[in-house]
Amino acid sequence: EAGVTQSPTHLIKTRGQQATLRCSPISGHTSVYWYQQALGLGLQFLLWYDEGEERNRGNFPPRFSGRQFPNYSSELNVNALELEDSALYLCASRGPERADTQYFGPGTRLTVL
Amino acid sequence: ELKVEQNPLFLSMQEGKNYTIYCNYSTTSDRLYWYRQDPGKSLESLFVLLSNGAVKQEGRLMASLDTKARLSTLHITAAVHDLSATYFCAVSRRSNDYKLSFGAGTTVTVRA
Fold this sequence. Notes:
The complex is a heterodimer.
Chain A: E1 5-7, E2 10-13, E3 19-24, E4 31-38, E5 42-50, E6 53-57, E7 64-68, E8 74-78, E9 87-94, E10 103-104, E11 108-112
Parallel strand pairs in A: 2-11
Antiparallel strand pairs in A: 1-3, 3-8, 4-5, 4-9, 5-6, 7-8, 9-10, 9-11
Chain B: E1 4-7, E2 10-14, E3 19-25, E4 31-37, E5 43-49, E6 55-58, E7 61-66, E8 71-76, E9 85-92, E10 101-102, E11 106-111
Parallel strand pairs in B: 2-11
Antiparallel strand pairs in B: 1-3, 3-8, 4-5, 4-9, 6-7, 7-8, 9-10, 9-11
């Protein structure tokens, strides 16, 4: 069974640009979580999508947004990129059989120059 | 807001010796997780602890949970080089949709 996949692996952008990150959950999983792992800030919860809707968001500005598609894949968009947005962005999915367990993807390394 | 504190943040281990990583959390949680992360890689789930007194073991790693003290420990027995990684603990609550609140991580280096 395929795990959580994310694309791209690496993304290089300049300040002010927009970045789009993608995540495909494990088959059968309807929940997708996004986390940011920035240097010196640790792992922080960004967004949670379930059944196509945003259910919860962390303490991040509105320029961090996303969506979940009918096939439960998800997209994270970061607008007006700032240098401090450089981080590893991790996606995790959760399914009904183990509601308390998130399975993490390999991450997208975003570098803002 | 759930706060999670890990210590130590850095741990230099000698092969063959035993060590413990501590994880304290601020408020009642339903689940306590331990993850491993290798440099530049994603998170690998090690343990999920649910109830007071829970103990789980996998190879040289053993995790335990004391919900009354809001404390979990990750014990490493007879450290080997392969255990070099960063270890995170995290907590979640069902009432908070199981979103994870992470500790800062403990970077472990095992030397010969």
